[in-house]
Amino acid sequence: MTHEREIELRENYLRVMEKIENAKARRSMAGEVKLLAATKTVPAEDVCYLIENCGLKLCGENHAQEFVAKYDAVKAVGGEMDFIGHLQTNKVKYVAGKAGLIHSVDSLRLAAEIERICIKNGTTQDVLVEVNIGEEESKSGVAPAEVADFVASLGQFERINVRGMMTMAPKCEKIGEMRKYFAESYRIFLDIFTKKSYNIREAVLSMGMSDSYECAIEEGSNIVRVGSAIFGSRIYK
């Protein structure tokens, strides 16, 4: 890695952290907001530099292949890895029991496979329920009206710990339009995941990306998934 790249990564990371702190100050509720660095297509070297030198603690991968490729390097320098993308059942074996959180559980079929792999390996898995807050046909996730029933149905799996929910707002021309989706997500989150009956300590609401994380924090997010604002624009295959 070049010295110029190191400077770029450090400055971007510190800028994002400053914006997170400012957004926290603007929101009425207190509490920690975690930065998850979304590392899709990013070399492990860049990720490990931020962990070792800048204070990054958590990153997340969208694809099982990249998760596996970076897992050992990230863990070796003290980082944690979540899985944040759509997870196919035939790829669960690469992720379950290793990811700190799987952010994208949206079907009983997927949950059953996570349970099976965890039983096989003698592990457990923390998960978030993915909510399709915009009810978009092109996106996965549980419909808002079905979240409560789906969460209840996950109680049948002894190796799965439901920690909260994740959502992605639809593409909007203005941040104000996106805000309403975050506010609705937070309402659902409060209704379901802060109830003592679920016995969730420090329930997680994962929402907000590079173009929206400040707004998401203001509306109640406590994990933001930020990629390009840290690593720069990326070319996806």
Question: Would you kindly provide a written description of the structure presented here, covering whatever features stand out?
Answer:
This protein has helices spanning 3-26, 44-53, 64-76, 92-95, 108-121, 147-153, 175-193, 213-218, 228-231; strands at 34-38, 58-61, 80-83, 102-105, 125-131, 160-167, 204-206, 223-226. With 237 residues, the protein is α/β, with parallel strands linked by helices. It has a four-stranded parallel beta sheet with strand order 3-2-1-8. It has a four-stranded parallel beta sheet with strand order 4-5-6-7. The chain is globular, with a radius of gyration of 17 Å.
For the record, give the distance between the C-alpha atoms at the N and C termini, rounded to a whole number.
Answer: 23 Å
Computed CA radius of gyration, to the nearest angstrom:
17 Å
How helical, in percent, are the residues?
A: 40-55%
Shape from CA axes? Answer: globular
